[in-house]
Amino acid sequence: MPAASLRDRAAGYFLAILGVAAATAICVALRPHVNPITAALAYLLVVLFTAMARGSGPALVASVLAMLCFNFYFLPPIGTLTIADPENWIALAAFFTTAVTTGQLSGRVKQRAADTRRLARLQAVLADLGERALRSDPSADIQGEVARLVATTLDVEYTNVAELLPGGTEFLLRAGVGWKEGQVGKAIIAVQGSQPGFTLRSERVVIGKDAAIEGRFLPMARMLGESVASTISVVISTQRGPYGTLGAHTRRRRAFTTDELNFLQSVASVLGATIERYRGEDRLRRLNRAYRALSNCNQLLIRADDEPSWLRQVCQVIVETAGYRMCWVGYAERDESKTVRPLAQAGFDEGYLDKVKITWGDTERGRGPTGTCIRTRATSISRNIATDPRLAPWREEARKRGYGSSIALPLLVESESIGALTIYAGESDAFGDDEVSLLTELSGDLAYGITTLRTRADRARAQEDLRALNADLEQRVVARTAELHAAREREVETGVRIQNMLLLDKPPLDVPGLHVAALTIPSQQIDGDFYDFYRHEDQSLDVIVADVMGKGIPAALLGAATKGHFIEALCHLMGGSRDGPLPQPREIVTQAHAEMVRHLIDLEAFVTLCYVRFDPRSRSLTLVDCGHTGLVHWHAATRTCEVLHGDNLPLGIHEGEIYDQLSVSFEANDTLLLFSDGVTEARDRQGEIFGYDRLAQCVRASSGREPRELVEAVREAALGFAGSRVPRDDLTCVAIRVVEGELPLARWAIELRSDLRDLARARRFVRDVCAGLPGAPLDDAAVGKLELAVTEACSNIVKYAYHGRDDQWIRVEVEAYPDTVSLCLRYLGEPFDPSKVPQPALDGSRDSGFGMYLITKSVDDVRYFRDERGWNCVALVHRRGE
Q1: Which of 73, 481, 709, 797 is the one with CA 20 to 30 A from 625?
Q2: What is the Cα–Cα distance from 26 to 36, expressed in whole angstroms?
């Protein structure tokens, strides 16, 4: 246990003893004026204070001491621990029980608060890491940053990023915290029997609670000479397969929480995605360099006068333009020497290649990339010289010169190998498929250039061919550039789709008494505006419209984090009052702000926001305006337009802010509009803003129209005023229209498994609901028809949507109205539209369609739709009295 924790626990017990001693001294000094009840209350206060401040352990000590002191000084016989009156035993037992219970409850509350803070901290750290990973470039030490971040967040002494080396038998300690000097970047760990190797095979989180008795693997820290007690590791995955493992190790025994496990997995996912992005960017850079080298080599060939000087220039271009370490061109001598003669090189010491003798015996044995290439007349690639047995004689030389991979490409003239182009690179993952294809083209151009220069009589024809070749190359470059541009556009489009999924919920379709529509137009392709909708069991609807400071991906990430905090705050408050009333909007906003304010201040960012709760039953709304634009309310009865504002600060301005709300009523046919400042602050060419008056005029002109038509009218008005199809600032609005319509008199719901044996529960549920309907009851015939319709609909869902699986769910909801009874079956799986089921063949020629036929004959209306959450819905309506 850490020394700080021991000191903190000792301080708690000392506080318990000191508090009881102080209370005893005061009460004894004032004994003539203090009766036993007062003394007992004083001791109880000490115990309660100790429990709240230090938890159950110190509270238990305080309660025992307080009980002994109270008995000794205030219960007869005074000065002894003897209890003469039996009633005092009961009092002391009650006192002790109260103290212990209070201590336990306080400890649990503190633990829950600590867990909540820990989860919020982990989520904040993860969000910050994701943002930094998006901004970082390949030169940044993202792996070292991740290792330090995990060590700090999980409070461990050692962390590691172990990279799986080519060959799959060893790991390299690529980054880490806490290791001995010189181990990071150099230490090698075998896959067999090690913790990283076991993690890679398990493909899941691996936890070693006690390294002393761990028998599955040898903990990584022990393999590197460190003493640890508990350890945890997870796989870092990329599209190419596992990159390696991320681990955390500590010298003390501890149990990692589920939140910490999820945090480590999320960090590994972010790191894997970042590594994959770095690889992709590096691959694009290498391809671009190879394209430029190919183009430059062809330009050199056009101006070439003699073969040796041209080849030396080509080698120089390959090294300087394409970024490789070394390259050389060798000729296969067919005379008595039977050697490969170097003719041109770049990157090697002057005269170095003249000392290297590659004989025909080497080529026949396939030693080295050049020999293998000439023997097979095919490209020879070694992606890791350190592990390639063919290159063992050159391994030490490769290590000294700092290259780790090589490629040799044959120079073919009429299918005969006249030599090879050999290139060395410093990175083990160089020479991807696209790069090899480009270099193959280059080797073909070299062979062609050699033949051309040797045949001066055909020079004119060769130059014409080269011009055609360059034209084709330019077309390929243009095509490749267009392809890269299209790829970037697809990435942005993917980002937009992700933003729409994370930040822009679909407006609800079936809120009784309300019609809702929403629209957002980003000033860039990705923005920070967002809106969200929360429906509650009492048919009320919460709507959020927010504007995050800034634009682009950072603003979108911050918007997603803000939305997540509001969902978390709502769930937390509703969980705390499960059987009570809904938490008020001001409570939800205050809770969410408290969770994220420090992060917003650290990021020097803020969020303006309107949180509105619409209650169709009471025809009232509750508004919390956090420095946003307010809400436009069109009163249909008086045909007047009103703008409602609050006076709260935006989120992220002041820590400890308490938010207020205001409530107003609305009537049927009223229209309400939430919007961002991209609407009211749209400017024309003279700099004049659109403003609230023009917005109110637009709402007034569209007051009788549906919300989707209203938001389109607002968009057309604002963009038409600005004279542009793209707004300067993000433009967002949500319209709600109050409609005449009956609210349900009562609602019921049940969840069934997709098991045909659960159909009996469905029938009982329908019969019990029909028995409790408000108003006139249904007769037995009507109840039987509803039972039959629900049974057949559930059977069809099991058969067609879930394909007979019995482990899925069907939710049945019933709403009672004065004139109708509405049943809605919600389910996932494949859509099942009853209207598309063909009529049954009554002559017996086809078996299908009878279930749907029974449903349509049992109820008055059948309708299929998908709700805003993506659930399939089948609505069955029975008209009462028919």
Answers
A1: 709
A2: 13
pLDDT for the residue numbered 304: 66
| Radius of gyration of the chain from its Cα atoms, rounded to whole angstroms | 38
**Cα–Cα distance for residue pair 144/129, rounded to 1 Å:** 12
Give the other-Cβ count within 10 Å of 231's Cβ. Answer: 25
From the number of C-beta atoms within 10 Å of its C-beta (0-12, 13-18, 19+), residue 583 rates as middle
Q: How far does Cα 544 stand from its chain's mean position?
A: 21
Strand blocks (E) in 204-335? 206-208, 230-238, 241-250, 326-332
What Å distances lie between residue 857 and 385, 760, 798, 860, 879, CA to CA?
77, 21, 21, 8, 13
Query: Mean pLDDT lowest for which of 197-201, 293-297, 852-856?
Result: 293-297
Residue 328's identity, in one-letter code, is: W
Please give the Cα distance from 226 to 156 (Å, whole number).
Answer: 13
Structure tokens at 119: 């989860």
Maximum C-alpha span of the chain:
131
Tens of pLDDT, residue by residue over 247-296, are: 999 998 888 888 888 888 888 888 888 888 777 776 677 667 767 766 77
Q: How far apart are CA 659 and CA 626, in angstroms?
A: 8
Hey, what are 171's tokens?
């790991």
Give the residue, 83 or 624, on which the prediction is more confident: 624
Query: What is the rounded average pLDDT of the residues 20-33?
Result: 82
For residue 544, pLDDT beyond 90: yes
pTM: 0.42
pLDDT at 162 exceeding the cut of 80: yes
Burial of 763 (0-12, 13-18, 19+ CB in 10 A): middle
In angstroms, the CA 793 to CA 762 distance is 11
Please choose, from the candidates 610, 620, 876, 661, the residue with its C-alpha nearest in 3D space to the C-alpha of residue 769.
876
**Cα atoms in the 13 Å half-sphere on the side-chain side of 322:** 31
Percent residues over pLDDT 70 in the chain:
79
Helix 86-135 × helix 552-576 angle, to 10°: 160
Can you read off the two tokens belonging to residue 675? Answer: 């919007």
- 477: region left, alpha or beta (phi > 0 left; psi from -120 to 50 alpha): alpha
Instruction: Render pLDDT for 321-330 as a digit per residue (tens, 0 to 9).
Output: 777 878 878 7
- Alpha-carbon distance of 157 to 808, in angstroms, equals 45
Domains of the chain, each with CATH number or no CATH: 3-113 (no CATH), 138-280 (3.30.450.40), 304-454 (3.30.450.40), 504-738 (3.60.40.10), 746-879 (3.30.565.10)
